[in-house]
Amino acid sequence: MNATVDKGGAEPIVELRDVHQAFGSSEIIKGVSFSVPKGGVVCIIGPSGAGKSTLLRCINGLVPIQKGTIRVARFQVHALKTDAERIALRKEVSMVFQQYNLFPHKTALENVMMAPIHVLREDPKEVRERAVALMKKVGLEAKHAAYPGELSGGQQQRVAIARSLAMRPEVMLFDEVTAALDPETVKEVLNTIQELAREGMTCILVTHEMRFARELADEVIFTDDGKIVETGPPAELFDHPREERTRAFLSQVL
Amino acid sequence: MSALPVLLPAAERLARAAEREREQGCAPFRLEASHGVMLLALFAVGCGIAQAQGGVDKPSTLETLLKWTPVLAKGFAFNLAISFLAMAIGTVAGFFLGAARISLMAPVRGGAWVTINFFRNAPWLVLLFYCMLLLPFQVKVFGVTIPIPDWTKATLGLALPVMANVAEIVRGAIQSIPTTQWEAAHSLAFNRRQTFWMIIIPQCVKRMLPPWMNLYAILTMSTVLVSIVGVNDMMSQTQRVLSAESRPELLLAFYSYVLLWFFAYCYPIARWTVRLEARYAVRQ
Lengths: 254, 284
What we know:
The complex is a heterodimer of chains A (254) and B (284). By secondary structure, chain A is of the alpha/beta class. Chain A has 9 helices and 10 strands. In chain A, helix 6 links the parallel strand 7 and strand 8. By secondary structure, chain B is mainly alpha-helical. Chain B has a two-stranded antiparallel sheet with strand order 1-2. In chain B, strand 1 and strand 2 form a beta hairpin.
């Protein structure tokens, strides 16, 4: 049940070992191990309720784990006790959500600028320049002053990506970021992520976009019922799945 | 059996109203223009009665009302001053009490819960009496005697229930913000305090404003309670004027006049609240 993406044998930037997570009495993650090298792109696929989103939330410390270890860069995530320690971690790991979760009382540009100014305490002028550049990068240079409520789903999601990027993270987590979008806007968001991945950003994506996973991922992890069923490079996993469960799932979604 | 057809429409009406309430929740009572018209009618009737009973040798009712209006207005100003102060104190205290309800520390949460429920459910008049009787009439600080006038104590007494109600409004508003907003903020490395002040509270203000203004209208009308504990508000002044005039026929005219003053003040607030609520409902 181990998955390692080999990229020159460098020390992986994210490493999970035998992670167990339970919510109350129901166990959601039942012993998951994998690692991601710097610059790697890993897609986690699997049926709903497999614990994929929870797994992502464990990596940035939003959800505590009961057993196992998680390391991200220099942080032992499972051992973080205080808010301050978790905040140090989250400066390196950004997350993009299915429902965008932009701050509705702030404009798009303010959404992007807020965290660097108030959390990283960077110079507002510099942050502004960076935010403007990021808005351009996600193709929304004309929408600086728009409030989230005035933007389409796809536009909101791109603002959310820009907002995460503004923190200059080492790792980005994407939690089914296209699941709430209509098919036409899915592409604009996927293009943005693709560009990031090509630039060498370490990405962990939970996704239902199989074609996208095949194109982009270095490694695909198929999870079911809180466990990793099978893992491998996309060509292998999609075309020659070893496990019966993987085959059954893929025949449903492809 | 013969009475049944007569009763049925009323019973049906009640059943329908109950059904509506179950579905949409109990609609809050709101001042409307028609209430003003009814009050005016009451006032007119009061004046008419006074005029009819007063006889010809006495000054007319309107004349008497006009003569005393400056005195009554001074009392009304006192009602407003008490309402402002009690609202300000209650809002600040209630804000922190409401925030304490979502504290991560269980004792703080529990303490706030007890405080809120005690002051929200105790009768306002009882709280008022507590404050009047338990607070000293003066305190000595470094040898200087500072008197505590009755109206200060009364203001505090009214601020207590306001505080508890504001706390409930604040708590409700905070909890109406989706938890995903907290999650997003935490993911961007905001700490709890920053998340609260920069992300959650700004979104709450719009939601809190209408119920807060409602509460203010209720408080303003409740300020007449202070007349019972001997503060010179409009109500006390009216009582004094009436005993000075010693003309019982003026009673209805004077008290409906007082009602009109309160209506004239509270009605615009109620209308404004309705507008704010409508605007908020559309945005949401």
